[in-house]
Amino acid sequence: MPSALPDGEPMPEDGALPASALDGAASRPLGFYLHVPYCATRCGYCDFNTYTATELRGSGGVLASRDNYAQTLADEVRLARKVLGDDPRPVRTVFVGGGTPTLLAARDLVAMLAAVRDEFGLADDAEITTEANPESVDEAYLSELREGGFNRVSFGMQSAKQHVLKVLDRTHTPGRPEACVAEARAAGFEHVNLDLIYGTPGETDDDWRATLDAAIGAGPDHVSAYALIVEEGTQLARRIRRGEVPMTDDDVHADRYLIADEVLGNAGFSWYEVSNWATSDSGRCLHNELYWRGADWWGAGPGAHSHVGGVRWWNVKHPGAYAGALAGGGSPGAGREVLSAEDRRVERILLELRLREGCPLSLLREAGLAASVRARDEGLLDAGPYAEGRAVLTLRGRLLADAVVRDLVD
Residue limits of the Radical SAM core domain (predicted)? Predict the structure, then answer.
């Protein structure tokens, strides 16, 4: 089941933000994340805020239905306009995620995008992305999205091997994601991503290399590769606990990461974030960079998180409760927190260190600076950028990124 929401102070009923949240807003990019909380089935490893038809049956009634979801989400976009007032910024990025956004009709996703465009306007070079399940799209569907303004699509490939997909409870067949890339290109998409997962129980090094080769051969300009994380409460965690499949292994994860960086690098992909590679700077995911660089984004949809000017908030999780709050004229926000200057400093280190450009050494306190010297001397931070005042992870540092970050935030 979906993970729990964080703790925080109550969100005002009208969703109002402290005046300080909009101070200097004109200098920060603004993005929108639009969450679609529906899936045909729940994958065994997933703890995202998603719901199958069975899970929603009798819970929330018509308000939880995906049939009118686009209109409901548009209500929150209009609420965002009220809360942000006369904020003049056009939207730089829109990212539709889930769940499985492509369970909705293409016209619904286009209508959700239109709501953002109508209320805020889009930057001339706006990046407009949707996630897509390989089994729920075809070229006609993708063409409708492209004509409606989408210019980037991200397909969940995970693996090219059937036995790995089976462990993950993925329903698409090997080869289908690669075909989707060709269909997206034919539909006119400039940017295409494939999401991969490594370290699944039963996967071998050869399986992983075959997956990387298949992904590269499909011709995307972006690949995301994530280590499988076994979350408590998921079906996969229960299977591991029962001994049906082995637990994931950190050493295996490290080996698979090194393979990914080597194979992708040899194919012309460069890392720009610990888990992301692109064939050029124009292929980088600008929306995710808003997160990593502490910009502003409004997350619309059940369980979606937002951040504007150091204020972070999150919506109620259930689609019925979400729709009910909006139907009643209020905010669907469940809670919020106002970040202190120290919170924001720490978050900058946590997030920016993951990027190829790294983070400024000026963000570090005395203990963190001393730790950074040790990390440089141990080959975890690149000596070249370090001499210029930036902490940038080496390949070995990327393998140990969490440990490096823990030391630097002191």
Answer: 24-270
